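Lipopolysaccharide biosynthesis protein, Novosphingobium clariflavum. Tokens?
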Amino acid sequence: MKSLSIKAFNRKTLNVKHWFADGVFRTIVRNASYLGSGKLVAAVLGLVALACAGRGMTPALFGTLVIIHSYANGVGALVKFQTWQFIVRYGTPALGRGDIGELRDVTGFAFGLDLASGLVGLVGGLALLPFLAGWFDIPAEDVHLAMVYCLLIPTMTAATPTGVLRVLDRFDQLALQQLVTPALRALGGVISYFGNFGFIGFMITWFVADLAGDLCLWIMSVIELRRSGIAGALRPGLIGPGRRLKTAWDFVWTTNIAHSIWAAWGPVSNLIVGAMLGPTSAGLFKIAATFFDSASKPADLMSRSFYPEIMRLDPASRHPWQLAIRSAFISGGMGLLILLVVMVGGEPVIGLVFGKRYVEAYDLLQLMTASLIVTMASFPLESLLYMAGRQRSALVSEGTAAAGYALLLFVLIHFFGITGAGLAYVAGVSLKALFMLLPTLWAYRERDKLVSVMAPEAQA
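Tokens:
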């Protein structure tokens, strides 16, 4: 019987000086650094945008803007297929084998799913908004603006271009693209603040910035496909490609349900807080969550570069599992450093950027940062499960954790108010890590039964 003790890994696995001798590990770190450089600038620009909105409107109006954005984003998250993961899972091996026909099937199938889910999300979001606006405390006079904002749902749900750029190893392009939305938000926010354009000005700014960022991603993917000589990759199709790609529907439905549940965490949390405590509390929660998301970005960046690389490896070997431990150690260590910085500098930064009336958000941030190390150190778990073909285990894990989080959110807000929202957030993150760890350990024990989807020469 296999043991998961430290003896299961050779000494180099935990010997830091040998880690960077691994070319795959260097690639993961390089791609993460590309994304990290862009995210660092994007985080600063995002704070400028939020600062302008927070100072240019009353807390109630700022909260209304957050709720409208969260509604559109939340609807998109609920119907969104994780087509980028599908493209990486099936497109990376196809490209490695030189099978361009299969790659076209993968990208066309993903594009078709994006179109279908975007249309469903748009129709559903517009139909439900008039009935839900009152519950979310969206003023009657702003419902029409919220409906206009819902027009972004189709572009919010599209993940095909992200997958294309990752398969083609163009993380530098992704790093540039992720600057577009925050840069435009910051620019428009400054104009709206100093021009005294109020709520309408900030609403237009956020709408245009989101749309421009999404369209930029599509343009980049088209250019890169042409540069790689891959024609017809964005011709949408579901029936034909779905028949030719074995297990495609099983993968996309499983990952869709799992990520629809979990990706809606942030937007739905804002909506629940707003519904139970009002727009002002929703704005405070949004500020704290924004700081937390910015602090935990290194884990997200490592995950985006980690997943495509391990899909090029043999899952039955120790290599991808060793990479997971190395990446988790680095990410967890970064999390500890970020935690110390946030605890020391979070309050003065919030006061300086947003004003003293928003300093209460720091109390929430302190609670949320308690889960920062867990979030950052556990990022490889989901990718390992997908590599091992255990996407259903990931679904059960994420769904169970999200259900527990939602229940705790309602209960703890009822008893502790806005502080309860922070406590529920910490509990939800911890539940997700625990529920993902258990099936990952089992997959490692059974790794000899796993079969690589790469050709032997591609693995070499």
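Residues 25 and 158 are 29 Å apart (CA to CA).
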